[in-house]
Amino acid sequence: MSNSTGTPENKPLPDLGDGDLMLALQGGRDVALDELMHRYKQPLFYFVTRYTRDEEVSYDIVQEAFVRVYTRAETFNPAYKFKTWLYQIALNLCRDYGRKKKLQSFISLDSWITKNGEDVSLHDIVASDENIESLIEHRQTLMILEKQIDALPHKLKTALIMFSLEGRSQEECARILGITPKTVEMRVYRARKILLKKVSEKV
Fold first, then answer.
1. Do 79 and 126 belong together in one domain?
2. What's the pLDDT score for residue 41?
């Protein structure tokens, strides 16, 4: 059979949903992977970069994530969302990376991001509801807080990234992490409590 662009095997599939694309990939239509990468490669890269703070490493992780999507396509359960499955693959790769190399810094807390249409400093987001802004008035304390975030357990750090820095809802975080929204809330709460305690001890 010809492999020209016009054949059914190689015809673009932009109108299919994620689940149908995975079914197509399971059926041998490799072009389905191209469409999935088109949809998710960039946002996944942004997420992974927040975790690793290394664009080169993040690029490798994202590439490996899609390699695993391809090689493990048969294990995908259509009952679950593809996005959830993809992010779980990437999270596992991030965790493996974290085990191999202790990060020097998690994220620059005195940088700014746009959240709900307003520019907000990351340390203000992390400190929200815990009133620890008074503890991080100086650069030295910011550096301490940065290191303590880096030292958070993987589960707490991931929840903090998704909810506080990515601005995702508890429900979306829960779907991606495979936990309940209440568990997301508790992990973020625990992460903030740990930060408050550790920074208080250092200043």
1. no
2. 94
Distance CA 203, CA 190 (A): 20
If asked whether residues 40 and 86 sit together in one domain, one would say: yes
* Two tokens, residue 131: 């009133």
Question: What confidence tens digit (pLDDT) does each residue in 51-75 have?
Answer: 887 899 999 999 999 999 999 999 9
Note whether residue 182 is domain-resident: yes
Three-class secondary structure of residue 103 per DSSP: coil
**Predicted confidence (pLDDT) at residue 165 exceeds the cutoff of 80:** no
Q: What SS3 state is found at 157? A: helix
- Supply the angle between the helices 82-100 and 55-71 in degrees, to the nearest 10: 130
Q: Which amino acid is at 96?
A: D
Whether 47 and 55 have beta carbons less than 8 Å apart is answered as no
